[in-house]
Amino acid sequence: MDEPSVEESIEEWWEEMSFSGTASSVFWSKMHGLKERLKVWSKIHFGKAKEKMRDLTNQIHQLDIWEESRDFSDQEIADRGNARAKLNKLIKAEAIGWRQRARVQDIKVNERNTKYFHCIANGRRRANLISRFVIEN
């Protein structure tokens, strides 16, 4: 069975939660509950992306080394293709995430200029930071 999409999961979680109180407190409680569940969902589906990318790169490299020393079976060729497809998917997701975080629209698709994205995103965060309030009197 395929895993449900995030939208289906949110609908299911929203219906599962029941709180009592005013409408605004029930809404706030449900939103807080969704936030916590989305954190867990995100870690499961997107967490440890760097580790996954490193593992896939190592797997592809190992298969390339094996291919030089012996003939490959159809299964090994398929495994390498699947590993490359997964790696490309992770790379694209990472680039999309940084582009969204930096809000940069004029970058070419598949450009991996992550240092640039980091600078833009972190600069925006620093510029928007409210470190303290000054209240007169």
- Round the Cα radius of gyration to an integer and report it: 22 Å
Share of helical residues: over 70%
Strand content: under 5%
Sheet having the most strands: none
Low-pLDDT residue intervals, each spanning 5 or more residues? none
SSE ordering: HHHHH
Note the total helix count. 5
Q: Give the overall pLDDT as a whole number.
A: 81
Distance N to C terminus: 63 Å
Strands, total number:
0
| Principal-axis shape | flat
Based on secondary structure, the structural category is mainly alpha
**How many domains make up the coordinates?**
1
Structure notes:
- With 137 residues, this protein is mainly α.
- It has one domain.
- It is built from 5 helices and no strands.
- α4 runs parallel beside α5.
- The longest helix is centred in the middle third of the chain and has 29 residues, at 74-102.
- The protein starts with 5 loop residues before the first helix and ends in a 9-residue tail after the last helix.
- The mean pLDDT is 81.
